Give the backbone structure.
Amino acid sequence: MAVSALPATSTGGVRALWAPLGAAGLALAATTYIGLVDPNESGHYPTCPFLALTGNFCPGCGSLRAVHALTSGDVGAALSFNVLTVAAVVVLAGLWARWLLRRWRGEPRRAVAPAWTLYLLLGVIVVFWVVRNLAVGEALAP
Amino acid sequence: MSDYGNPADPNKPDPNQPDPNQPGQADWSQPSEPPTGQPPVGQGDQGYGTQQYGQQQPYGQPQYGQPQYGQQPYGQPTGAPPQNYLVWAILSTLFCCLPLGIASIVFAAQVNGKYEAGDHAGAQESSEKAKKFAIWSAIAGLVVIGLYILFVIVIAAGSDS
């Protein structure tokens, strides 16, 4: 949030890249930590509050283990922990690349994703949330 | 979405600055209503709800970038779309705080939907709400982590004695 409060630059070029590069640095630091501190061992990270309170998985459950699996290159394990997280990593990486390019060129943000795509995202998350708690959706459970 | 602080238009007010002329900002009970402070203007009466979704406008006016309601409410520019903070919504849904993340996604979708419909003031309003939820989920995440660290320290102290 502090990032967005900073004054805008309209020039592009290297100096405009601090925000995407800073975000990438933070993401890399967090990923490194998750790679080094294994979330499969209990006590390393807090349990998901929703899981602890209700006993049901939330749509994000398994994310830490999925990221940990990705750091060791085990995409299959990552997918089995949380399909959505792996998809989100891909989508966020793509958005980040577009952001970087736009900052580099000094372009303003013009394109807006159609609203239905965001409502679709919401629907996918809710369906995923429900199904992974059902017997038929066991494959989607972390 | 991920373009923090990018300038779209030199006339654009900083979206992070609260707009004193925007009474609907804190009005949580009526999220989809137009701001109450807006005076009724001739064209504005038919503007909301009817003149949207790509209907052909007279005289071949381009739909975007034109003042649709006969006025520019609150001096909002029609240039760049408001920030929808979708990345924060996704991150908080996956890693932190499910209900806040879900609400954030709804507001992000509202931003884009209202912007598409030409309701720039409404899109700005939804953007402010999306931002509030992003901040709250970040705070909630820090609180959860803080409580957990505290909890671990208490357990460690308990097992030492």
Residues 1-13, 18-58, 60-77 of chain B have pLDDT under 50 and may be disordered. Residues 120-160 of chain B form the longest helix (41 residues).
